[in-house]
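Project standup — Tuesday

K.O.: blocked on the structure for the chain from last sprint. Re-posting the sequence here as requested.
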Amino acid sequence: MRGWLAGEDVEAVILGADGSVLGMAGLVISVADGLGTIGYWLAESAQGEGLMTAAVAALVEEAFAGRGLNRVEIRAAQGNERSRAVARRLGFREEATLRRAHRLGARVIDEVVYGLVAEDPRPGS
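H.V.: unblocked you, prediction finished:
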């Protein structure tokens, strides 16, 4: 809530029809840099239904139209094809692979950085 009030975070919980938590998506904002970073997770049982693509699309819209940001990034584990596909479906460009950039349990994994700037074309626009 503090982040929302400060204009630095937008967090969304994705709920199932029964009210159960299926996932989360969030936008962390650096106002000084005009940059937003989107992160997300979704229960395996809810994957493949377009829920996360819709949630991330809403965060992208909020970042550019609602907050006037210049750039949005998504970072995904190199081996997480479903997460990477969300970024690609929304028009993000693959820009870099950061080697050994994130600890996941006992493993250190590579992350792929996807970027979208306000002027980039987006699907459906």
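K.O.: great, moving the ticket to review. Residues 51-66 form the longest helix (16 residues). The mean pLDDT is 92.
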